[in-house]
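Hello,

I think I submitted the S-adenosyl-L-homocysteine job twice by accident. Can you confirm which output corresponds to this input? Input:
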Amino acid sequence: MDRMELACPYYKKCGGCDYQGVPYEEQLKKKQKGEQNLLGKFGKVAPILGAEDPTHYRNKVHGVFGRDKRGTVFTGIYEEKSHRIVPVEDCGIEDARATAILKTLCILARQFKFRIYDEDRETGLLRHALIRVGRTTGEIMVVLVLTDPILPSKNNFTKELCRLHPEITTIVLNINDKHTSMVLGERNIVLYGKGYIEDVLCGLRFRISPNSFYQINSEQTERLYQKAIEFGGLSGKERVLDAYCGIGTIGMCAADKAAEVIGVELNKDAVRDAISNAKLNQIKNIRFWNEDAGKFMGRLTAGKEKVDVVFMDPPRSGSTPEFIQAVHSLSPKRVVYVSCDPVTLKRDLELFVKKGWKVQRIQPVDMFPFTSHVETVVLLCRKAEQADRHIAVDYEPQGRHMEKRL
Ligand code: SAH
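Support: Only one job matched these inputs. Its output is below.
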């Protein structure tokens, strides 16, 4: 495919894809420029790593249930900055298997006479559907978000959904009875299968539960993690911290190149997944803590613990001054910052630089084609470490994927 354009009938109302109709090569150029403008003052921005196929990459698909005037059930997304539901039947960036299951769920919701949730009146049962696809394993999880744990005719519904989509490996009911913009509630009831899916990333197997974070573009995540591990410059002797570790993916990819890895994560379901993932992959030199990353770091510094390399991958809001101060006090050799928002990344890098750190590498990765979001991996070193041979390597002349496209 030369010109990768999505012809999407919903994009004006949906607002999810800012680069709708923009050829993929052009999207990469725009993102490169954006990163350059925001982060260029810290150092050279390496050419963005683009995707081989920028379509249908989303392994997690979310649909809000709605009903039109004729009573037909549909799924869609909230219109930008509002709570009106825009029906979306097809989406060029979602996994096609998930889109097909969403369509079936609408038909079954009507057949089984499930009451659709009405946000204004706070009535009805069925709120959202969340579908996750394991890119490598093909395992598929369907999560139905309900206001009440009782789903009428649940056995017949499960039978029918699995008959129509034998590719589904697990079905979970998630209970969310709050008036909230959060999709998932805390309680899960397994209707069918294991209650989670597994997927393989960078040769390791990961269990993913409904409430755990998992990167939504598996192909590009492998590129992202490879870069992060490369920037970590591990020799096998280091004590590594994986902060904001989710289900433990980065730490586990680093574990065979380190002496010891510690992971910290706030979400307890993700930590539970991380612990079973270490077992699943027989990784013995990794431990996880379920705690706020800033508080955990405070304890590490108070205990005068030694950490050689820090991987940090905070949510979009970025890290905190408390966390960054603690990293500075621990004085690791290297910090690898993985960010999904260059604006908060810039803010946090400024703080590191003020404390005497130097940005050595900046690598954008296109995790979210057709949207304006960009993922970035940054390598930071203490000023004194700049002469370190491993990190002194210069940029590759051109990123492999960018080179092909531009
Ligand atoms: N590194 C993981 C997860 C990155 S997403 C991966 O690549 O998959 C960011 C993670 O930070 C989420 O799992 C979220 O639950 C976690 N998180 C958010 N705030 C946190 C905090 N204050 N302390 C620790 N973890 C936090």
